[in-house]
Dihydroneopterin triphosphate 2'-epimerase
Amino acid sequence: MAQIKIKNLLLRTQIGFNDHEIGKKQDLLLNITIDYDLAGEEVSDEPNQALNYRTICKEVIRLVENGHFNLLEKVAEKVAAYIVSIDRVKGVSLEVDKPHALRFAESVSFSLTKTK
């Protein structure tokens, strides 16, 4: 089993349900760890055998930035469900941070792990 980590993916989306949040895009910071099976790419050095983290990242960006969410939990579930649906992926752990969600805190985050 191997891991790919996507660190500090900064996205903007409509998130929140309070009056001052509705209709406004806010920053979210995602950290994603993908557990998957190798297919020989570590020996062959062939890019076409590797899990394509660029494609995964592009779809995560599309899912989050084109969505509207009330809760961090829903963002995490949507991203995790997509990643776990990929053939070679065995599991995913992710943390979704909402910077400045609380006045005296750097951020609020929600973490989720999903396996097949």
